[in-house]
Design goal:
elongated; Methionyl-tRNA Fmet Formyltransferase, Chain A, domain 2; 15 strands; 8 helices; 2 domains; alpha/beta; 7-stranded mixed beta sheet; Rossmann fold; about 325 residues
């Protein structure tokens, strides 16, 4: 079977999933349909429906689009079965029921943004940066019942620089996923895939990567400087680490570590009123480089200080 003959159904929703779909389409693979989330209401009253990035790309390239509300809907399942797909590919989509992932004869594989079995879950890129990892990667694996636990097909690793935030790592992995997805398809066609059960990776810690909520993003200034620095990187620019000052929310996007120790209470703010604003941690100081006060735009600290006076003995909570 050639890549032109192999019938592929692709499933994905956000920007991250567009690159792999693009790689398949531009590589001449036979994508017979795209499955993505229903259009999302946006606007002041939710009166405008916004298609997913994957849908937008699919429509631009005249691909069949399917948007089921429920993946067990009998009408959707029958429509999917009628496509007679040989293989299904999932990138940044929902958890699939067995009746869907077991349908194609060659199976369904997922491209996950971590080095499985480490960082199973909804936010693997964020948690890798938050935890100060020095490398991550993309894993392709065959789906099974439990989420992100299927047999591993291939992995590719990339370094995480100490200055990388989650956006930088996301974009690197997004490009890498497109390459690995097409390579995995080629190996499936060639019959050279030897998948490895994840329980064979006994030396890999099973660090979770759960979904991130607003309260997850609150900064604990009682942590060490490095821990807080990584926490900010791992949430920048979205959803952004935050703290409060005088009861108002403050998002922090960029910072740098300072080696000097601090005798101050963690959260204490020190500023020269012009160019610098630093915050005491449990073992030192963190220089804040850009932030966003509630009701204002994101801006560099120097710009903020031109219009805002920080009171002496102020501190973040």
């Amino acid at each position: 079977m050639t890549k032109e003959e192999l019938r592929i159904v692709y499933m994905g929703t956000p920007d991250f999933a567009v690159e792999s779909l693009r790689a398949l389409v531009e590589g001449g693979y036979n994508v017979v349909a795209v499955v993505t989330m229903p259009d999302k209401p946006v606007g002041r009253h939710g009166s405008v429906l916004q298609p997913s990035p994957v849908k937008q790309y699919a429509l631009e390239h005249d691909l069949k689009v399917m948007q089921p509300e429920k993946l067990k809907d009998p009408i959707f399942v029958e429509e999917l079965r009628a496509l007679k797909a040989d293989l299904q590919i999932v990138v940044a989509f929902r958890m699939l029921p067995e009746m869907v992932w077991s349908m194609p004869p060659l199976g369904t594989f997922n491209a996950h943004a971590s080095l499985l079995p480490k960082y199973r879950g909804a936010a693997p890129i964020n948690w890798a940066v938050i935890n100060g990892e020095t490398e991550t990667g993309i894993t392709t694996f065959f789906l099974k019942h439990e989420i992100d636990t299927g047999d591993i097909i291939q992995q590719v690793r990339i370094p995480i620089a100490d200055t990388d935030n989650v956006e930088v790592v996301h974009d690197k992995l997004m490009m890498l996923s497109g390459q690995l997805v097409t390579e995995t398809v080629d190996n499936i066609i060639a019959g050279t895939v030897t998948s490895i059960p994840q329980d064979q990776f006994k030396d890999v810690p099973l660090t979770p990567a759960p979904k991130i909520f607003r309260e997850t993003c609150r900064i604990d200034w009682n942590q060490p400087t490095k821990r807080i620095y990584d926490f900010i990187r791992g949430l920048s620019p979205y959803p952004a680490a935050w703290t409060t000052l005088d009861g108002k929310s403050v998002k922090i996007y960029e910072s740098e570590q300072e080696a000097a120790t601090s005798p101050c209470k963690p959260g204490t703010i020190a500023s020269d009123g012009k160019n610098t604003l630093k915050v005491a941690t449990s073992d030192g100081w963190l220089n804040i480089l850009s932030l966003q006060f509630e009701g204002k735009k994101r801006m560099p600290v120097a710009d903020l200080l031109r219009g805002l006076k920080i009171n002496e003995n102020a501190f973040f909570l």
